[in-house]
Design brief:
Number of strands: 0
Helix content: 40-55%
Strand content: under 5%
Structural class: mainly alpha
Radius of gyration: 21 Å
Shape: globular
Length: 321
Amino acid sequence: LTLPHSSTSDPLISHGHHFGRTVFVLCNYPSLLTNSILRLEQMEDTPLEDFSAEERREHRVFDQLLDSDPGLLERLQNGSEEEIIHIGELIGKGATGTRGDDTKTLKSAILDWILPKDAAIQPPLHRNSKIDRGFNHELTGSLLCPAGLDWNNTEYVLNFLVGELSVCGDQWPIFLFTHYMYDTEDLWCGLLRSCLLVCAYKHIFTSPSSVNKEPKAMQSGNARLHGMNSVTIASIAYVATQVQFTLSSSSVFLRTNTTMDSETFYHSLLDLFEDPDESKEVEELLTWWNQYLYHPLSFRRISYISSQSSLSYFLCCQASS
């Protein structure tokens, strides 16, 4: 076998673009492929259930990768270790490149979504620099504030600014919730249904120009290009992670980012989605997203209701219950 041609036009790179957004993004793809091929041999004698939770997730990702490219398993099984690593590098190159592109375009666009139209951000936030974002600014800081903490508490704010109070990735920010309101008695009320997430999702998967338009079925952009006709749980986690990073003051997206702990944040959302005890709520969440993006007629009436109205909040909680 000869090594695949390493170029930006390689199908494996294109495959990595969509796979990273919709299935799994924060991983070492060469290691994933190498480990999974070895695990296939081990699974002849050991059921998958006997492996660790991390190994089971890795193998589920591997299975989805194989399902998305029918000829890939044969290439991996017949290839040398060098070839397997090279295939993983190409897929990883696609996933990383797309993540970088999304990060770049969201950096400016998000400033148009975090305040009502025509409202001015005070003090102004730079579109091409993030140094004044994160907990350095009232607006971005309030959105990144962990749910359950009071951003209006001066002590919290000062501790965030001087670094005495750090935020772990599994302390979810308030921007994940509808109207940025957290129900201490019901985690799922409005979770991952905020307007900010919807804007970012449409920006990435439909097109930047679709964000401010009335919802229409996703007929263009990256979703259509890759035959995507439904939302995946990993794509919601991906968008949430992108938004978290975009609001932060971090200049470079790193898996090991200690300021926002992006990798832990991403994995904590996947942990919730994959928890069997939460399957009913996860299914309702996917239904909500799919109705909004693929069957928008059922949401048309809601789109004309004021986001601050009692009815809007009632509908949000009703959809989450």
